[in-house]
């Protein structure tokens, strides 16, 4: 089993039940999320849910929500024996960013990707390329939404196996 968290940073109220249904369909259990106002986006709501499920659940959750392009969300999956963790970050303006995560939560960048960047980038292009590999633009866009959610209630869900 693996564990992770789904953070929905902003969602229109009309989509909230659909998000819950998508999460429930993936986890095979009822997903009742506690939605609260998102101060960074008036009229939008936010929620977070911690989950336990099969390895790869983060990717399946991200895919289940991907069709709603107005959502801001991220899904993390902790590393588990024999598997690296994953992180999916989605915003309406930037789309999807996926990264492999170490056991302590650091973004892992593969050697081939770094070598390709070093072979093609010079000067400021190198810094921009590293920012792209790390998902810096997604973090910059979501950070105000994350801070606005400090202290938000958390719901725990367990996948039916």
**Multimeric organization:** single chain
Point out poorly predicted stretches: none
Approximately how much beta-strand content do the residues carry?
A: 25-35%
Average pLDDT rating: 90
Query: What is the helix fraction of residues, given as a range?
Result: 25-40%
Strand tally: 8
- Biggest sheet character: 8 strands, mixed
Measure the end-to-end span.
Answer: 10 Å
Give the radius of gyration.
16 Å
> Could you give the order of the helices and strands?
EHEEHEEEEHHHE
Q: How many independent structural domains?
A: 1
* Net shape: globular
Helix vs. strand class: alpha+beta
Helix run count: 5
What does this entry show, briefly?
With 161 residues, this protein is an alpha+beta fold. The chain is 34% helix and 29% strand.
Defining traits:
161 residues, alpha+beta, 8 strands
Give your account of this protein's structure.
It is a single chain. With 161 residues, the chain is of the alpha+beta class. The chain has one domain (2-158). 34% of the residues lie in helices and 29% in strands. The chain contains 5 helices and 8 strands, in the order βαββαββββαααβ. Strands 1, 2, 3, 4, 5, 6, 7 and 8 form an 8-stranded mixed beta sheet that branches. The protein is globular and about 50 Å long.
């Amino acid at each position: 089993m693996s564990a992770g968290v789904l953070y929905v940073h902003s969602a229109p109220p009309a989509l909230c039940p659909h998000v819950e249904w998508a999460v429930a369909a993936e986890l095979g259990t009822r997903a009742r999320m506690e939605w609260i106002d998102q101060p960074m986006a008036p009229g939008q709501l936010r929620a977070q849910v911690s989950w336990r499920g099969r390895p790869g659940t983060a990717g399946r959750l991200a895919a289940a929500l991907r069709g709603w392009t107005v959502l801001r969300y991220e899904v993390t999956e902790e590393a588990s024996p024999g598997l690296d963790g994953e992180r999916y970050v989605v915003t309406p303006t930037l789309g999807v960013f996926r990264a492999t995560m170490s056991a302590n939560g650091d973004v892992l960048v593969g050697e081939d990707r770094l070598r390709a960047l070093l072979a093609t980038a010079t000067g400021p292009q190198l810094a921009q390329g590293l920012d792209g590999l790390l998902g810096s633009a997604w973090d910059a866009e979501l950070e105000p939404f994350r801070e606005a959610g400090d202290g938000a209630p958390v719901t725990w869900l367990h996948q039916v196996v």
